[in-house]
Design goal:
CATH architecture: 4-Layer Sandwich
Number of strands: 17
Number of helices: 6
CATH superfamily: Ribonuclease Z/Hydroxyacylglutathione hydrolase-like
Structural class: alpha+beta
Largest sheet: 8 strands, mixed
Shape: globular
Distance between the termini: 10 Å
Strand content: 35-45%
Order of helices and strands: EEEEHEEHEHEHEEEEEHEHEEE
CATH topology: Metallo-beta-lactamase, Chain A
Strand order of the largest sheet: 1-2-3-5-6-7-8-9
Length: 266
């Protein structure tokens, strides 16, 4: 993987004939007591950092031979804090025409992952979208988003192992939300795993992956998923890409001090 462009909001790399972007939608400050230990108590290290924790909000795009533009997650649009909703600016910095995006793959339906289908002003950001890939178990929760009703005819349910596009496969990551799904991507030279929300606070959860997040639907299952994925990725050479990893949002999982560390892409 070779980094070919890096700005405030866009990071682009190439791998074989493919281009991969990490696009910043901004950030959100969340209460520090949302990070929990295995007994569901707030984590002292998080509380010591202050009243809130700052989470990056990243989206990802792919383009390659014979494949139209693919977007994974879309950020918050204009539905949450004004510190988010900057995907359109990130696309411009990354020199991506929104009209080139024809497939949108959702990791889960929390608002900081799906609302970017609309700009903060309510305009459709991706006018040529042909399919919205979503786990079958998450379709019902998408229907709960009334302001996204116009996109429902585009929903395409997928199961674990289902092919989304060339070299892109759905990957079950249970625990955080209904149908929480990652996407495995193999360019022929590099492997990537777009992990959704298995990690929210990289500075603490890589070192202690037993720490969970207050919004995890099932904290014990989310914990088991995180432990397995980090174990499998450490030293494997697979690039991890996460919505809440610090910029540039892509890096490596490594063994460190009997747990794990995160090394951002250069």
């Amino acid at each position: 993987m070779i980094t070919t462009f890096h700005s405030n909001n866009a990071f682009r790399c190439t791998s074989g004939a493919w281009r991969v972007w990490s696009l910043s939608d901004g950030y959100i400050d969340m209460p520090a007591d949302l990070l929990r230990d295995p007994r569901n108590n707030p984590v002292p290290e998080a509380l010591q950092a202050g009243a809130s924790l700052r989470l990056s909000v990243n989206c990802f795009a792919l383009a390659g031979p014979g494949v139209d533009g693919i977007l994974i997650d879309s950020g918050a649009g204009g539905r949450l804090d004004p510190t988010m909703g900057h995907l359109e600016q990130a696309l411009a910095e990354g020199e991506i025409d929104p009209a080139s995006i024809t497939v949108f793959a959702i990791t889960h339906t929390h608002p900081d992952h799906v609302n970017g289908l609309l700009t903060p002003g309510g305009r459709v950001l991706f006018p040529n979208l042909k399919a919205i890939v979503i786990a079958e178990a998450a379709v019902e929760s998408f229907f709960a988003e009334a302001h996204l009703a116009q996109f429902r005819p585009l929903l395409k349910g997928v199961r674990d192992g289902g092919q989304v596009a060339e070299r892109l496969t759905a990957f079950d990551l249970p625990g955080h939300a209904p149908g929480h799904t990652g996407y495995a991507f193999d360019t022929g030279e590099d492997r990537f795993l777009f992990v959704g929300d298995i990690v929210h606070v990289p500075a603490l959860q890589f070192g202690n992956p037993a720490f969970t997040w207050g919004y995890d639907d099932d904290q014990s299952v989310a914990r088991a998923t995180r432990l397995k994925i980090l174990h499998d990725m450490a030293g494997s050479g697979t690039w991890i890409a996460g919505p809440h990893l610090g910029r540039p949002g892509i890096g490596r999982v490594v063994h460190k001090d009997k747990a794990y560390g995160y090394e951002p892409a250069a």
